[in-house]
Amino acid sequence: MEREIREETELLKSNGELTVEGWARKPFWKYDRSKIKASLYRIKEWDYYAIINEEREFAIGITYSDLGYASLYSIAFVDYKSGKFSEKSNIKALTRHKTGLLPSPDLDGGLTYTKDDMTFSIIKKGEKRRIIAMLPSFRLPDGRIGLKLDLALIEGHGTESINIATSWKENRKCFYYNEKLNPMKAEGIVWLSSEKIELKKRSYGVLDWGRGRWTRENTWYWGSLSGNDGDRLWGINLGYGFSDRTPASENAIIYDGKANKLNLVEFDYPEDYTSRPWLIKDNEGRLFLEMKPKVNRKSDFNILGAIKSDQNQVFGIINGWFLLDSGEKISVDNSYGFFEKVYNKW
């Protein structure tokens, strides 16, 4: 039985275990890194943003993360039309969680990273997150040089999100605290080399805010897509594969600002990730999606077998339907989103 948390609570007890596991419509748990019973090298923290513009058929992914022994800063550009992507990543060693990541996704504040030819800032104030980035030597998938962003991601006033706090059966002091904020309206300007693109309609953003102490090896599945039903925005977040999800899954539909909770989901995908459509359904007959893959944003590395990652984030065009808590059926028509499978040994 899933448990909904309805009021603010401390995240961890004095012994390092979660005070209460479950899901919530707001990030009610209070995160304090100093209470985690683990080395700084076992704590994983990140803010990940994805912005999708359906009119021009591209996506942008931005990662600002600190794994204790190193931090990762990354910007990716995904071109649906050509089926290609470009990415620029920098790693800084032994950051030990001194990179400025905040203890709550609701807090106002800013993150800035600058090195060589990559500079970006993420500034939150109220219901707006402004993202500014300059990468003058970034090679786009079509061969052009230069990427610049000045974007705003805007959440609706009072909009709910999907939040979970869950632990691992094999070690209850290992936990994952996460908010997925989806959908957000995306506005602003993207410069592809000298070409200026203004984001207007059919542009959406999602935030994946994660904090926790992880076990050594994990595989996760995650998917996100957004759209609108007339004037009502909706976003779908789906995921599974790691930690004990008995108290809560992260599966939810945010429709017109309200969370409609789903139970369990499963992704049916080809071994090569792109040779046939992905099929996604839940266990209660409330969701069915089919994604036609367009781009696999693949990334993998292996550092002497000690640190390994195999990431397949597949962007595609999605059709299907979902049922709200009220029983109303909403169609998903040519929505742009992504589903992924990620293995980490970290």
Features:
mainly beta; 13-stranded antiparallel beta sheet; about 350 residues
Short summary:
It is built from no helices and 24 strands. The chain is an all-beta fold. The strands form 3 sheets. Strands 2, 4, 5, 6, 7, 8, 9, 10, 11, 12, 13, 14 and 15 form a 13-stranded antiparallel beta sheet that branches. The chain has a 9-stranded antiparallel beta sheet with strand order 19-18-17-16-24-23-22-21-20, with no helix packed on it.
Provide a descriptive summary of the structure in words:
Strands 2, 4, 5, 6, 7, 8, 9, 10, 11, 12, 13, 14 and 15 form a 13-stranded antiparallel sheet that branches. The two termini are 31 Å apart. Strand 8 and strand 9 form a beta hairpin. This protein is mainly beta and 346 residues long. It has no helices and 24 strands. The chain has one domain. The protein is 0% helix and 63% strand.
The ordered string of helix (H) and strand (E) elements is: EEEEEEEEEEEEEEEEEEEEEEEE
What gap, in angstroms, lies between the N and C termini?
Answer: 31 Å
| β-strand amount | over 45%
Number of helices: 0
- The number of distinct β-strands equals 24
Query: What is the overall shape?
Result: globular
Count of spatially separate domains: 1
Low-confidence stretches: none
Q: Using only CA atoms, what is the Rg?
A: 19 Å
Mean pLDDT equals 96
Roughly what percent helix? under 10%
> Biggest sheet: strands, sense, closure?
13 strands, antiparallel
Structural class: mainly beta
